[in-house]
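All the exercises in this workshop are built on plain-text protein records. Sequence and backbone structure share a record, each on its own labelled line. The question running through the whole workshop is how a given chain folds. The record below serves as our worked example for the rest of this section.
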Amino acid sequence: MRKRLRVAAAGTAAATLLIAGCAGGDGGDGQGAAVNRGSLSGRVEGSGATFPGPLFDRWTAHYTGRVETAARVDYRAVGSGGGIEQFLAGTVDFGSSERPLGPGELDIAADVRGCAAVQFPVVFGAVALVLNDDELDGMVLTAEVIAGIYDGRITRYDDPAVAALNPGLDLPAEPIVPVRRGDGSGTTYVFSHYLTTEVPFWAERYAEGTDLDWHESTLDGEGNEGVAATVRERPGGLGYVNQSFALADELATARVVNEDGTPVAPTLEATTAASEEAEIPDDFQFAIDDIGGEGYPITGANWIFAYTCGYDDATAALLRDFWTWTLTDATADRHAAELGYAPMGRELKARVVEEIGRVGESD
């Protein structure tokens, strides 16, 4: 039976007041009570998921161009696996991934740095199934069919399993060319986690992770950009990418049947509906599973990793302010919506802002 989970409604009064001060109608320049605007300087470096790459590019450009012009925030979209590796190695100031750090990784982080790591979600997003053929836009897929395609069991668009889901669609008698990520990827984690929770044979053979031992029939692409490009260039191509890349490349997308049996397209509204079913614990380790209603079923979050120590004062202040700004500024939310990401609700933001305050607190 599907479990209905809701976002926990917690948060301190102080964090709520901070949001009220920072997210007012200032036209997006981030004026608020957190810092004196124009007082921050220095540079922070981060790396990780390509999933939020377009949004992080937009956020950093606006923040350093209009909010704190003496500051620099650099982010390299190297994939979630690389982001986790570089964060744990201490070569970046912050990391990013589509899955939270597990207990073992948090232990490694504490050993490397000598203090606890901090991790918090900043945005929700959908993983879209994109198609080479515009005539197939809106075709219906289930978790079982998607798993069958990536396992080499379903090889043609006119396969009976696909045809049964799409009785009104003229399916081409051509091979399906499944495309997947060739690098360690949080997008792969969200995609494979979904299939693992829904399809028993997938859980047994492939399980979930940022990189898998893929079937030999699949082609690989580097980053969301590489998958989107390969799908666009290869007749019969089908791949999974962050929703923003599907929008940017104007690719056809499939509707995916959710837990209530409803075929849902990867829209912002459907992503928001899915995110609202997530129960967010105090440690911010969660997954978005068993999505029904109007929710799109392949939905995930992006986490940021930082430390409670080891930064100089300027770096710690910049990290805290930048990530607080992304969550509390109206323009930051508008950027997210324009690119197809779902901003978090006000009460969850208050909890996350409180957690961001722990960055560098032990210095």
Remarks:
- Residues 1-34 have pLDDT under 50 and may be disordered.
